[in-house]
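Sample intake sheet
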Amino acid sequence: MTTSNNAIMQHNNNKRYILFVCHGNICRSPMAEFVMKDLVAKAGLEDKFVIESAATSTEEIGNTVYPPARRKLAEHGIGCAGKTARQMRRSDYDRYDLLIGMDTWNIRNMRNICGGDPEGKIVMLMDFTQRPGNVADPWYTGDFEATWRDVLEGCQALLHLLAK
């Protein structure tokens, strides 16, 4: 795990603010947002977290979660109604304790948007697991099951770390 302990342990008004980020905010990052919200709710910790997601690009702004991603969440009893894509802003760096990208390209773009990462808050989701690397991108593969497995594993590991 390469994340700064300061970023993990930092609290903002006794809550942890987490922003999941991918390219378009219609597949991987909203899947992570709603999986994490589900895990947090099942753990009875909803009042301890603010969890959202955003895009590095402007391509999908205002669009809903991509239908195959929405269906994959629904297969596991997780809804995402009302979610529309938004672009990450520089001000998000100050608002969130952790800004979690899905792949190395996202991380690079996130650092560009934020003007760097002086507090070590920008991290990759899979870096919380035993298999660091990119979350499978279903936009190119159509394999939403692989993305589901990566997102679930990453979110479970993140919650385990934060709930300590």
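Comment: The longest strand covers residues 16-22. The beta strands are 16-22, 49-55, 98-101, 122-124.
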